[in-house]
Write a structure and sequence with these properties.
The structure is a homodimer. By secondary structure, chain A is of the alpha+beta class. Helix content of chain A is 32%, strand content 17%. Among the domains of chain A are: 20-160, Uridine Diphospho-n-acetylenolpyruvylglucosamine Reductase, domain 2 (2-Layer Sandwich), CATH 3.30.43.10; 167-282, Uridine Diphospho-n-acetylenolpyruvylglucosamine Reductase, domain 3, CATH 3.30.465; 408-500, Alpha-Beta Plaits (2-Layer Sandwich). Chain A has helices at 23-27, 59-62, 75-84, 93-100, 120-133, 185-193, 211-216, 224-227, 230-233, 263-266, 300-314, 326-336, 358-374, 387-398, 400-405, 424-433, 462-468, 471-478, 503-516, and strands at 89-90, 114-115, 137-140, 157-160, 167-170, 176-180, 234-240, 246-249, 275-282, 289-297, 318-325, 347-355, 380-383, 409-416, 439-445, 450-457. The first copy, chain A, is globular. Chains A, B: One of its GO terms (biological process) is malate metabolic process.
């Protein structure tokens, strides 16, 4: 089998995986740089929610959470904000609605003001004012988070990075990009791809998410396997501390061992320790050849062996290894009308290669496919013969979230587990829930040991939830796994932190929070567990 | 030109680059796991110091530094230590001497006791005792640091990791290694190479340095270009905090976004915030083919173009791009008798590839060499045809430090600079010093923007030093470079931190130090600038 090759880097416009009622928006063209941010809802309804999305319950009504004694925004505060960001203070309740609700429509706050700074200096003045006045602040990027970290819980001031969307510099030899925190990931991708580089990360939400939010949540995504964590690719950050101090760690150097690497404090801290205003990031060269193969496997053992074989035979050109189970394929067929390109199988694998020599890559991939087909690890497979087909294959994997949202209420888990135990929890939960669940599915970034376990049911049910939690977390902890591989803790996972971190670590987290934000005004009710 | 290939991974036994009087030791077999650590001096004298090394001046005599009001070790303390680590308390002055002096023989402390714990629990008990008693502690790994960070300044208790040398686990599919902090890097390399993986870092000092010290100093080295920083490859750490609390962040997961990534605080903090006791690290698969080319370039502009060409044509198989100038070649010839394998040139470049397909790699490298030779970017070149030749080519680059030490007193600078300005400072300093310097040389990890600028003179001279400093640091700061790319700050560079970090960053460093080590007993007089 000699595969045909898509020699250009696929644009993957279909990569988004929003809930179905948001599909049109997130799958569409990149969000415009309008001074008035678009609502997550205004772009129309999708496949399975023709009757419109229901009103989201206010967070404090659904969850047991008490407002902390922060000040309330006064007329004087609004006047002060107007002086700092003239014409960019939003108080209209209708306009605010979209920024109070998360994109999964599971949490809702009641902020009465949103601020849209354009510069670091403006962010600094805003934070200085809020700090002095003891006003809580909710930093917000593209509002595409999965754990309720990007919207207010009560009436926090929303500090949006939407207008901080300027590229500051790009170095055409080193590939180092410096830009403001509010740049949309997809726009950055297009910018650097035109200059023969790629962004080191890629996400389903790239059409909406901001690079500052990506860094603040230490986003993983589809290129992690090849280009690693943002902890290595982010070279520098400018951050505004809670009292307005501007911390300039914005170097553009690959190596810098002058003292503590302070920027690491802010990567993945979800806006609870400071507000990221500028990012310096290392972009890898654009691969000259990209190929995608979609394979059917007879069992999970064969999926794992295919991964090992892949690593050995594709080596440095392997750029993605994703898997999904038969239930996922059933759901993308049923709800989105996508057809499997290969014979029905218990498991499917998507392999992507990205390299500098089309001929060499094709030969390596050809040998790999011959081997896995010949040895029975794979029972059927197909290759992307052009960019459109590559996108179609990727869509099968990337639109699973969307299909799940169309299936009913979704219980979502994002786990890191040892690969050899990774699918056991899906089987286990399926048996445990029996007919109480509609579907229990497993998919994810297998090459990184990252499972997305999702359970659907007709509607939210407290008893189903109690069958799932803390069971899933305890199971994960027993394997020394992570209860949040890439989504973070935000509001919804903060109280399960203890399943992955020992008390001494939680204690040190609290000390760091107290050091950097003594009044606790930065993104309160998030990341740190509720105090007993 | 079709190059012959060394298809095995070269062991590179000649990679060490110690001062010449240490050469025999560091280039020899890996340090034995003897309960009595070997002195850096006892293995004999080298090429150019037949008369023996002179006594090293005590640090407080050479530098303006005042002892802080820590307690002095008492008989009761020694008795307590003996109870914690029975038979592993060293107080013999002769035996202590080797641990009081750094391997470059530029700083010397006067510690009266060295402790050799075997377990985390022992480290915890030692720190708890020292914390209660206000005794200063100097954590020490292989004592191969370049900035005086690994030896005491006064009478700090030396806490050696030498006996914490056990491998705890290795996962043959994922390549995740968990081991104690005192494991010698070269021994770990051999261990994982026997299992078809490699360590993600490689250093000249690998025969002596400890993995815990590598992590504590965020070591860069020769594989950084390909496998990136320890901030990405270190997956987990176990650290003992100053009061004896054991902080278990020892996960073996590629992805974990459960709260702040606390391990990052300790990577690169040089033992000033806690003592690393166990490391979990991701090892890449061993490449099936490794090739080395050594090239002569007519100018630095051509070196830079060769780098760009190399990145474009070799892409994902490029694993090292090192450069050295003609003066470096002259010195390795003069002092070590190494001959240039190519025609005399103003600059030399070493290119290494590491990939999964010998034939493909040879073809890529062949095309690259044809192109650079044909276009005049390179005037002469040679390829490693076997493992021995690969080692010989690497030795030209790696033994520069050794040759410099044989040339006289060495002023050493380890800078990160924008690559296009990287050699300008060498030319500039050469012109500035004129005949006052014996040699001004430039070499380093060009692919990472990391220059080693070294100046030799017959002997130490305060006036030469004042011509160099702060000039070199100010020049670097003007380019927004780093005054310590990979060596860290330790004792010798702590007061130049301000050239690369703004006051707000230094202030936050001090706050972190105060939070994690309120009495300041952990590796005092290091990393943080002297208070005015």
């Amino acid at each position: 089998m000699v595969p045909c090759l898509a020699s250009r880097w696929p644009a993957r416009l279909l990569r988004a995986s929003p809930p179905c009622w948001l599909a049109a928006r997130v799958r569409g063209t990149p969000r415009e740089r309008s001074p008035r941010p678009r609502s997550p809802h205004e772009a129309g309804r999708g496949c399975c929610s023709a009757s419109g999305a229901p009103e989201v319950t206010l967070t404090p009504q659904r969850y047991a959470v008490q407002r902390l004694p922060f000040s309330a925004v006064s007329e004087q505060d609004l006047a002060a904000f107007e002086r700092i960001v003239p014409g960019r203070v939003v108080t209209d309740p209708d306009e605010l609605q979209a920024f109070n609700v998360d994109w999964l429509r599971m949490v809702r706050g009641s902020s009465k003001v949103l601020l849209r700074p354009r510069t670091t200096e403006e962010v600094s003045r805003i934070l200085r004012h809020c700090h002095e006045r003891n006003l809580a602040v909710n930093p917000q990027g593209g509002n595409t988070g999965m754990v309720g970290g990007s919207v207010p819980v009560f009436d926090e001031v929303i500090l949006s990075t939407a207008l901080m969307n300027q590229i500051i510099s790009f170095h055409g030899v080193s590939g180092i990009l410096v830009c403001q925190a509010g740049c949309v990931l997809e726009e950055l991708s297009q910018y650097v791809e035109a200059r023969d580089f790629i962004m080191p990360l890629d996400l389903g939400a790239k059409g909406s998410c901001h690079i500052g939010g990506n860094v603040a949540t230490n986003a993983g995504g589809l290129r992690f396997l090849r280009y690693g964590s943002l902890r290595g690719t982010v070279l520098g950050l400018e951050v505004v501390l809670v009292d307005g101090t501007v911390l300039d760690c914005l170097t553009t150097l690959r190596k810098d061992n002058t003292g503590y690497d302070l920027k690491q404090l802010f990567i993945g801290s979800e806006g609870t320790l400071g507000v990221i205003t500028t990012v310096s990031i290392l972009c890898p060269p654009k691969p000259k050849a990209v190929n995608v193969a979609f394979l059917g496997c007879p069992g999970f053992a064969e999926v794992l062996q295919t991964l090992s074989t892949c690593r050995g035979m594709l080596g440095e050109i392997l750029s993605a290894f994703e898997f999904m189970d038969a239930q996922c394929m059933k759901l993308v067929g049923q709800h989105l009308g996508l057809a499997s390109p290969v014979r029905d199988s218990p498991f499917y694998v998507l392999v992507e290669t990205a390299g500098s020599g089309a001929g060499h890559d094709a030969e390596k991939l050809g040998h790999f496919l011959e081997h896995v087909l010949g040895s029975g690890l794979v029972t059927d497979g197909t290759m992307a013969t052009d960019q459109r087909k590559a996108q179609t294959l990727w869509a099968l994997r990337e639109r699973i979230t969307e299909a799940l949202s169309c299936d009913g209420y979704v219980y979502k888990y994002d786990l890191s587990l040892p690969v050899e135990r990774l699918y056991d929890i899906v089987i286990d939960v399926r048996a445990r829930l029996g007919p109480n669940a509609k579907n229990v599915v497993g998919y994810g970034h297998l090459g990184d040991g990252n499972l997305h376990l999702n359970v659907t049911a007709e509607a939210f049910s407290a008893s189903l939830l109690s069958s799932l939690e803390p069971y899933v977390y305890a199971w994960t902890a027993e394997q020394r796994g992570s209860v949040s591989a890439e989504h973070g803790l935000g509001f919804k996972k903060k109280d399960v932190l203890g399943y992955s971190k020992p008390p001494a670590a939680v204690q040190l987290m609290r000390q760091l929070k107290a050091l950097l934000d003594p009044k606790g005004i930065l993104n309160p009710y998030k990341v740190l567990p509720t105090q007993a």
